[in-house]
Design a protein that fits this description.
With 657 residues, the chain is of the alpha+beta class. The protein is built from 24 helices and 22 strands. It folds into five domains: 59 residues, Helix hairpin bin (Helix Hairpins, Orthogonal Bundle); 211 residues, 2-Layer Sandwich (D-amino Acid Aminotransferase, Chain A, domain 1); 106 residues, Beta Barrel (OB fold (Dihydrolipoamide Acetyltransferase, E2P)), CATH 2.40.50.140; 159 residues, DNA polymerase, domain 1 (Orthogonal Bundle); 68 residues, 3-Layer(aba) Sandwich (Rossmann fold). The radius of gyration is 29 Å and the shape is globular.
Length: 657
Amino acid sequence: MEAKERIAELTKTLTEANYRYYVLDDPTMPDFEYDRLLRELEDLEKAHPQLAAPDSPTQRVGGEAISAFQKYTHPVPLMSLQDVFSLEELNEFLEKTLEDDPDTEFSVEPKIDGLSVALEYVEGRFVRGATRGDGNVGEDVTENLKTIRSIPMSIENAPARLIVRGEVYMPKKSFEKLNQRQEEEGKPLFANPRNAAAGSLRQLDPKIAASRGLDILIFNIQLAEGMDFTTHAETLDYLKSLKFKVIPYQKLHHVQEIDAQVLSINENREKLPCDIDGAVIKVNSLPQRERMGATAKFPKWAVAYKYPPEVKETVVEDIVIQVGRTGVLTPKAVVRPVRLAGTTVTNATLHNQDFITERDIRVGDTVHIRKAGEIIPEILDVVKEKRPAHAEPYFLPARCPVCGAKVERDEDGAFLRCTGAECGAQLSRNIAHFVSRDAMDIEGLGTSIVDALIEKGLIKSPADIYYLTLEELKSLWQKGGKAAEKLLAAIQASKEQDVSRLIYALGIRQVGAKAGKVLAAAFGSLDGLMNATAEELTAVPDVGGVTAEYIVEWFAQPQSKHLVERLRAAGVNFESKRVITDARFAGKTFVLTGALSKFTREEATEKIELLGGKASGSVSKKTSFVVVGENAGSKERKARELGIPILTEDEFLELIQ
């Protein structure tokens, strides 16, 4: 089969699989089979770039980052709705509408708490997507919207031009995973799914948006050239036939049944995969909508009923400390069980010391609690008149409750972090970092193997990796002789890595892979770095005062000293192999972009650094050269705009040879 035919066949198969999985929630293809076919399509498109279509399933992973979003003027304004906050206000709208037309039929839909967007299709292809903004002018977020799998990249039998409106949201499961990842990485938690969705959709790097698990529900046709509809329900059914993921709705006539449906949506909101903050009630007839018209701000034919947040009273029975995988200490209030927003709440996040101090939360206090964004239990305030006489102000500990190491505040002062290099709470993450590709690069020692080794009690520190025996590794598999031998060989080989990798692998704050190379070249060995003063460290280019203090403090910790000595005893290399004999690129900064064919990015970066230069990920006025491969994108364009010299791979090879 020719490449063109196979690409078309794979595109059709994967598009249908996407629709079944992300829109119908009815997967028909195993994940591994989908991944295999997607990889085959990627390889074919790489070999035949002229055949790669802009709506290919491979384009959903996210393109290159941009510097800013472009403004976009909506051809049809995206109006907001008038809010009502009680059944009385809702019934006033319903009764007035029915008084003017007793046969009025209404559509009742859940109000998704997300970010409103417009999607534009031309000749059946998705060409643009933009945020609502002020209703008239939004921001072009097309590349980020492409990463949402339930948005079709192309549609069959579509009008010449179609614009639909939908609500981008973060499913509850995606939100929980994101906050878990934020906590593990020591980053602030998102308050609610809406904030998380809005922040994700406005990421300048589409790859970040792609990792967030966003979804969308379509609820309106803004423009459909050549099409004629009489009811809103018809438009939704039509959109469903085009394979859009459409908002669920009920067609109702009477005030009592509409009230009942609004209350029913609220009662069953916990069963929904996404967060909602109300219900939308719309006149179904499109001609009737035209007659009713709109004010300057709202249509007169619809309202949004907003559900009040549920607040309950409970008692703080204890405050416990959780140590995340990055060492951040997170306080949590253990509260007397209380039913809230459909679930039983037994604890609430306290974020950090500042949050506790600001609200003066103490063990024994009676507090008001709610679910922030209907997801995270949050303490609103303290009922001071019910405070017991023995209640004392609460302060986070000065020592890690897991390993006893000293606790330090982050540079922004918001979080406390354990400084222990061998802290048990951070062990899985620390080892995963230690063995990662840019660090000690131990192939085969993935997360599942690391977790199994920890669970068996075989490793309690990164240094323990080098003391593992073949028999211990064999115990991880039922028939794992060859796998164990291969892994042991990879562990032994990693001992010879350059010390720059070891410096990065140690996980010292603000010391990344590039800093590891700079420090290795400056001090020649790990011992040289260990004995360096803060003044000597800050004399090294790109090492600031804060980073220097982190390095000095890390090596001063007892756990750090123990780790280093065990690595030394295991025979891990402490010397630098990165000797710069030719500094022709001294003071020069290179940016690599596009698909390189003569070497990998890592190999090119290594050559630049060994000649005294630096490799950067972004183009600026300080960039000396931009090396371009195939399909170079925005970085090449920016280089031309700034007048920065552009090198082909052959020209770059001439420079380094």
